[in-house]
């Protein structure tokens, strides 16, 4: 295809192609052009401009062209080459850039999303997806595209850039397209493949890092806490839990998240890093989501599993060390001293008793520690060491606590330092045998008919020292005795009378233990 201006030697202007508003197309070297033009066009490049002087015997000779070119006229042509192609031409594909990693390439029936700039062979632009601020989305190999583009997209990787030169018989042929693509025009497309998928695709998993020890894998119904970066296939970040400085927490297999992630999180281990590639029909489909996820977009999630649990999980107990000859173990109401280290399952340290001057102290079964820790401290021997895995419903729950994220699974390393036998719930002191028959008289040490606090304290300490009874274990026995005195001094006048003094059995008919 050429544009030209033509004049005869006499200066007569003939009909230039510019005046007709259309290029001239012709086949060179087969006798369809005058000999001079046939020869003059040989060896021209696209966008080359030539002046051709054609003598009469290589033009229209002694006959001329009636009403236009006189006989024996020498012709002057000013020619610009716009396009060249041959019927034997094939698609010309040049790879401009290609990602280092390419696990898959475009095949027929794939759905592709790509950006393009379209020009004629002389560089004249005719269309661009960039000007529409949207990718061109279509199926490959199903007749939705011109044949040359159908072929030119095959074998591309997501993120690859190509230059595709398409001869007219693989484009719009003799008819062209509207006013922007002339007949017999070769087309040049600069293409960036943003992403692609096949409607039959499932979720693709890439295991980036799997812990050597994986005792359990997540299944439907488990509650998972994980961090993630979400990107499009071209690397554009659309969301990240890291930017919010909090994990994404959800049940899997229950429909709370997109189907692709529901599937992609199945079988994960705590601490695992996994890449989940989700096709649009398992993500946000043709409509996309918001202004960051386009319609029909393939999504890539790089996830890091922090922890997971099931609402039915008990405390997991691993005994690391148990002393030989362990005959006495802890029970509810026992007073225990223990050391502990508490962390998240990803190793993040939360708390440690070693940061303080003395071990932690607690009476078991009094709701002073989280339920899972209380359970984990039962049936232990002094000197025993355990690792406890405590699910959140037996820990700090959905809300968490200061320094503890909501729904976090906790890991405790505990060592029982010592234990003291406890007393039943509601008791501050129990007798090892029957209480004295004349209890009030024995307690009234100076026999003045009333028992002040110091007499009461001396009596109780003597009973403990002689092994006749025991106090509720505590780090502050004086406070326990003071509480006992206050319970018996019913009118709070600072002394106990014989009418005020009552055993526990007198108050609640409890026959197993008797308490002041």
TrEMBL record:
Domain PPIase FKBP-type: 1-85, 109-197, 221-309, 333-420
Main localization category: endoplasmic reticulum
Top EC class for this record: isomerase
GO CC annotation terms, alphabetical: endoplasmic reticulum
Span of the signal peptide: none
Transmembrane segments: none
Segments for region (Disordered): 485-516
Reactions catalysed according to its record: [protein]-peptidylproline (omega=180) = [protein]-peptidylproline (omega=0)
GO molecular function annotation: calcium ion binding; peptidyl-prolyl cis-trans isomerase activity
Documented EC number(s): 5.2.1.8
Subcellular location: Endoplasmic reticulum
Domain EF-hand: 438-466, 476-511
Record keywords: Calcium, Endoplasmic reticulum, Glycoprotein, Isomerase, Metal-binding, Repeat, Rotamase, Signal
InterPro entries assigned: EF-hand-dom_pair, EF_Hand_1_Ca_BS, EF_hand_dom, FKBP-like_isomerase, PPIase_dom_sf, PPIase_FKBP_dom
Protein role: PPIases accelerate the folding of proteins during protein synthesis.
Name the record gives this protein: peptidylprolyl isomerase
Gene transcribed to yield this protein: Fkbp10
């Amino acid at each position: 295809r050429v544009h030209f201006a033509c004049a005869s030697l006499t200066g007569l202007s003939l009909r230039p192609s510019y005046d007709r508003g259309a290029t001239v197309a012709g086949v060179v070297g087969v006798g369809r052009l005058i000999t001079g033009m046939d020869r003059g066009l040989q060896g021209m490049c696209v966008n080359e401009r030539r002046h051709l002087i054609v003598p009469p015997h290589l033009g229209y000779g002694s006959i001329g062209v009636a009403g236009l070119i006189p006989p024996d006229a020498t012709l002057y042509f000013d020619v610009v080459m716009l396009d060249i192609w041959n019927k034997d031409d094939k698609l010309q594909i040049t790879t401009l850039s290609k990602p280092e990693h390419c696990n898959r390439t475009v095949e027929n029936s794939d759905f592709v999303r790509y950006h393009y700039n379209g020009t004629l062979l002389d560089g004249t632009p005719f269309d661009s997806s960039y000007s529409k601020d949207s990718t061109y989305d279509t199926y490959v190999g199903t007749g939705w595209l011109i044949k040359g583009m159908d072929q030119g997209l095959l074998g591309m990787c997501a993120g690859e850039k190509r230059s595709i030169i398409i001869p007219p018989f693989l484009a719009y042929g003799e008819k062209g397209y509207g006013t922007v693509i002339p007949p017999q025009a070769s087309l040049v497309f600069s293409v960036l493949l943003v992403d692609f998928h096949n409607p039959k695709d499932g979720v693709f998993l890439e295991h980036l890092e799997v812990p050597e020890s994986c005792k359990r894998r997540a299944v439907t119904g488990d509650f998972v806490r994980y961090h993630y970066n979400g990107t499009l296939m071209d690397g554009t970040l659309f969301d990240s839990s890291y930017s919010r400085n909090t994990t994404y927490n959800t049940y899997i297999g229950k429909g709370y998240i997109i189907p692709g992630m529901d599937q992609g999180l199945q079988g994960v281990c705590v601490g695992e890093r996994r890449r989940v590639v989700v096709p649009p029909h398992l993500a946000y489909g043709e409509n996309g989501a918001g202004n960051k996820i386009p319609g029909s977009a393939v999504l890539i999630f790089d996830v890091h599993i922090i922890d997971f649990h099931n609402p039915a999980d008990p405390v997991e107990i691993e005994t690391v060390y148990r002393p030989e000859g362990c005959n006495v173990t802890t029970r509810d109401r026992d007073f225990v001293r223990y050391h502990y280290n508490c962390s998240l399952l990803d190793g993040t340290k939360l708390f440690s008793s070693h940061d303080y001057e003395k071990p932690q102290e607690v009476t078991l079964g009094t709701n002073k520690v989280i339920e899972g820790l209380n359970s984990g401290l039962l049936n232990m021997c002094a000197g025993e060491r355990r690792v406890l895995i405590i699910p959140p419903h037996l820990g700090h729950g959905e809300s968490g606590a200061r320094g503890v994220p909501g729904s976090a699974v906790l890991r405790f390393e505990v060592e029982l330092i010592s234990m003291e036998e406890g007393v039943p719930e509601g008791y501050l002191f129990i007798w090892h045998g029957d209480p004295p028959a004349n209890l009030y008289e024995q307690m009234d040490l100076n026999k003045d008919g009333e028992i002040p606090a110091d007499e009461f304290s001396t009596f109780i300490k003597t009973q403990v020292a002689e092994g006749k009874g025991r106090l509720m274990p505590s780090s502050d026995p004086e406070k326990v005795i003071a509480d006992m005195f206050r319970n018996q001094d019913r009118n709070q006048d600072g002394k106990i009378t014989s009418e005020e003094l009552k055993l526990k059995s007198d108050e609640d008919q409890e026959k197993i233990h008797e308490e002041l």
